[in-house]
Amino acid sequence: MKAWLSQHIRTLGATLAKLARAPVSTLLNVGAVGVALALPVGLYVGLASLQHLAGGLRVEPQVSLFLARDAGRGDVAQIDSRLKQHPGVRGFRHVSRERALEEIKTRSGLADVVESLGHNPLPDAFIVDASDAAPQNLEALRAEFLRWPKVAHVQLDSAWARRLDAVLRLGRLAVLTLGTLLAFALVAITFNTIRLQIMTQRDEIEVVKLIGATDPFVRRPFLYYGATLGLAGGVAAWLIVAAGICVFNDGLQELSGLYGMRFELRSMSVGDSFSLLAFSAWLGWFGAWLSVSRHLSDFEPR
Amino acid sequence: MISFSQVHKRYPGGFEALRNVSLGIADGEMVVVTGHSGAGKTTLLKLMAAIERPSSGSVVVNGQNIGALRPRAIPFLRRNFGLIFQDHKLLFDRTVLENVLLPLNIIGYRRGEAARRVRAALDKVGLLPKEKAYPITLSGGEQQRLASARAIVHRPSILLADEPTGNLDAAYAGEIAELFRSFNQVGVTVVIATHDEQLATRLNPRLVALKSGELIEAVPGAGA
Predict the structure, then answer these.
(1) d(C-alpha B26, C-alpha B7), whole Å
(2) Minimal Cα–Cα distance from A284 to chain B, Å?
(3) A223-267 per-position pLDDT tens digit
């Protein structure tokens, strides 16, 4: 057991020494793996941040009714009473055109523009909470409200949230596809790196096999190399993504501030970071294993 | 204990390296296999170390039939051997010490014990002062002695040497011969393939002669 452990520690030490002996090629290899991994991981981070943003919004089954501009107080009262009696309505709120105008003045900073208009361009509005959030039900409500007198426009407030959700689903699919393709690229990179190493170490492999080395003994340094390369690539990807978050967040805060929202990329959670490192190390190990298994049999003395 | 019975070895292409060879080598024996180049000496040694398999007949080493050995078992069989190759097969990117350490690393010795054994082996062949040198800086005789040190460092029970004095001058050849004699004296079975008549007479061993793949002069099972 102790001998077994010391063999592994020795192999790990030799692997690190080998990486350190060729710093430029090590750096380039790690960089290639890091960039390949950073793409899907970066996309994932962006997506997770968007999802967080979407989760913070109310995705309530809300319907907004906008009345025609010429609707009078009587029309408002009529709609008010109809809504009160409607079985599909859980509650509603009336926003009078005067209040809407006040809100625009105080909240958007467009006070000057509004003053200069000389009249109120806004209609009366009702914001209705539907009792059933099913999309078909909301559509039915919308059609029904549209037929009411003096209702000019009906808007489903949840529609854009559903669109965002669909976009996010598509994004997740893109991350998965990109991730799969680039995982394959990582396996290919380690496969080739290890193949080259086996070529240059032909003599050594032949000699150790002749003096009694088992296949696992011959394979071990290559597997360690592959796993170390994958792990280092994972760390590089993590750093690239972390740096990207830093760089983009300033700009994103400014941009989203202009839209009156607060959106920023969230850094990777500890769990996600560990998954990334474990997965990249495993991919490197797997690429090395494929390569060694494929090429080691060439050395079998016959 | 090594025994060959009616062994044929045919290489791909049809060349028959060994024909109907029957031979027994007892534990602790010293055997020199002589013959011209191409007589089958190297093939004979390769069959013993499971580097080749017989085309027909059986080769049994320490009770294990080489022809029927599973690939997984071969490394463990080889650990019984110390192999000295015609071309030495030293690793030129490693120091003298690291070259000799290799068999012990493969077997899995702990660091302290391994270092002690490596120094003992290097001391025996007179290379201890050069432990940090690289093989390329060594003379032909020193490289030969380094190969011998690597072959004996794990205390094998059988030592196989292929043309150990191949391109050495007489003085070096004498040293190497003494080295083999000293291993044999502590109970190691020594099998040497050589066309060097001097080496053969100097050691005064049991002689086995091969000619065109056939055994001449040898008595099968003699000394067993």
Answers:
(1) 18
(2) 25
(3) 999 999 999 999 999 999 999 998 888 888 888 888 777 778 888
Measured distance CA(A11)–CA(A82) in Å, rounded = 80
Calpha distance B158→B83 (Å, rounded): 9
* pLDDT tens, position by position, A199-231: 888 888 889 999 989 888 889 999 999 999 999
Determine the angle formed by the axes of helices B140-152 and B170-185, rounding to 10 degrees. Answer: 10
Q: Which two tokens stand for residue A45?
A: 């981070």
Query: For residue B143, which of B159, B157, B126 has the smallest C-alpha distance?
Result: B126
The residue ranges of every structural domain in chain A are 2-57+162-299, 62-157
The Cα A216–Cα A194 span in angstroms is 15
In B, residues 163-222, which contact A (CB 8 Å cutoff)?
A: none
- The contacts of residue A297 (CB under 8 Å, 6+ apart) are none
Chain B nearest-CA distance from A213, in A, is 5
Q: For residue A283, is pLDDT > 90?
A: yes
Residues 132-151 of B with CB under 8 A from A: 150
Strands A89-95 vs B2-10: parallel, antiparallel or unpaired:
unpaired
Nearest by CB to residue A210, choosing from B53, B71, B89, is B89
| Interface ipTM | 0.85
CATH code linked to domain A62-157: 3.30.70.3040
Long-range contacts of A147-151 (CB under 8 A, 24+ apart): A148/A79, A148/A82, A149/A75, A149/A78, A150/A67, A150/A68, A150/A70, A150/A71, A150/A75, A150/A79, A151/A65, A151/A66, A151/A67, A151/A68, A151/A79
Length of chain A in terms of residues written: 302
Distance CA A7, CA B108 (A): 7
Cα–Cα distance between B190 and B48 in angstroms, integer? Answer: 12
> What is chain A's alpha carbon radius of gyration, rounded to the nearest angstrom?
32
Give me the amino acid identity at B206.
R
> Which of A3, A6, A204 is nearest residue B91 as measured by Cβ atoms?
A204
Going by pLDDT thresholds of 50, 70 and 90, the confidence category of residue A302 is very low
Contact B135, B92 (CB under 8 A): yes
Pick A211's closest partner by Cβ from B72, B83, B109.
Answer: B83
Contact (Cβ atoms closer than 8 angstroms) between residue B157 and residue B120: no
What average pLDDT does chain A have?
84
> What is each CA distance from B211 to A220, B96, B171, B202, B216, in whole angstroms?
44, 37, 28, 22, 7
